[in-house]
Amino acid sequence: MSLAALEAAVHGCRRCPRLVAWREQVAAEKRAAFRDETYWGRPVAGFGDPGARVLLLGLAPAAHGANRTGRMFTGDRSGDFLYAALHRAGMASQAASGARGDGLELTDAWVTAAVRCAPPANKPLPAERDACASWLEAEWALLEHVRVVVALGAFGWDAALRLLDPGLRPRPRFGHGAEAELGGVTLLGCFHPSQQNTFTGKLTPAMMDAVLDRARQAASARSTSPA
Fold first, then answer.
1. Percent of the chain residues past pLDDT 70, beyond the cut
2. 3-class DSSP state for residue 133?
3. CATH number at residue 106
4. For 33, left (φ over 0), alpha (ψ -120 to 50), or beta?
């Protein structure tokens, strides 16, 4: 399967009735600020550079962000913060992203999420998380150059551990700046760029920049290390 074929398969997924109902309800009712827009209202596939060495793993599409625009971390404050940081790191062609097809291109980075549909209250059920896991596994198999996973939040950290080493005990604990080596891959923890974190100062631009700088260092080190 190619990344393009995987994207098409993700876009057609209807595995989780609760998530299907919610994403479509949000797309039909809309937020007042976006009432003239056509919402995506479907699962959202990953996005970025197919040759990326750094994968950024979030929780799920935001109801009025990626569920509206159809691209991960696009159209909301979390995405504004993330793509501005990627731009400063030289990994994004522009500092802001408002819609699919707006010219944004990523270099050496791939942005995705553990769950592909917007969940009510941003809280997927365990069964929904598990039903969606195969999409991340298929994506991982196709992104052959990834050497570093940046987990955006505890949910992303848990999903990364399940993906990379599900039987690992004891499990490394999530924290901002946390780091674990898992089967030739470096896992880095980063607070999620949600408004709850960025507006309160729990996550600052400098903190995000430090994680991305470490990700690039680790990716380069792993790429040059002998097999």
1. 98
2. helix
3. 3.40.470.10
4. alpha
Domain count, the chain: 1
pLDDT at 223 over 90: no
Q: Rounded distance, CA 116 to CA 200, Å?
A: 27
Per-residue pLDDT of 97-146, as tens digits, reads 999 999 999 999 999 999 999 999 999 999 999 999 999 999 999 999 99
Helix 126-142 to helix 3-11 angle (10° resolution) is: 160
Q: How far apart are CA 114 and CA 130, in angstroms?
A: 9
Radius of gyration of the chain (CA): 17
- In angstroms, the CA 7 to CA 175 distance is 31
Tokens of 108: 């050496």
User: pLDDT tens for residues 169-194?
Assistant: 999 999 999 999 998 999 999 999 99
Contact assessment for residue 88 and residue 209, using Cβ atoms and an 8 Å cutoff: yes
Q: Which domain holds residue 93?
A: 3-224
**Closest to 156 (Cα-Cα) out of 55, 51, 81, 20:** 55
Strands (E), the chain: 47-48, 54-58, 109-113, 148-152, 179-182, 185-190
